[in-house]
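Fold it.
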Amino acid sequence: LMSYTDFIYFYMSDEDKTNERTIRYWFEVIDFDCDGWITINEIHHFYSEQKLRSQDLSQMLPETECIMCMANDLLMPTSPGRFRLEDLLRNKKAAQHLVNILLNSKKSITSIFLDGEMHSMQAILASRLGVPQSLSPWELHCRYQYQILQDTRAD
């Protein structure tokens, strides 16, 4: 059973995967053999689950090898095909995409195909909420959820 504090930490880590603390958290989750590397074995383990979920929704995702190639291109690890925590911390936005692709079925499609559209959606959302576009994903999520709460109370 997860405590409230653990739930809040998990929830925040899921909404904003671009800060050092959450990247460290997700790295530890994905590196299940605890050898300090994310390799094709871990990527295949987690991504195969996402592929199964996408098939249930009649969506097609790229093969694991394509995801590995994309991760190499985005993260530019010192050892191709093997990713250290430092590789993810060096490019936090790419790290966010990799974690979404491996662990979050809803966000994996977005991370693979629609990143440009998501940025424009975030810009639209920020302008509608009257907030600066420089907010982190977590701050934007909180503002959006707060606005929903306010709208519900107004009804």
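The chain has nine helices and no strands.
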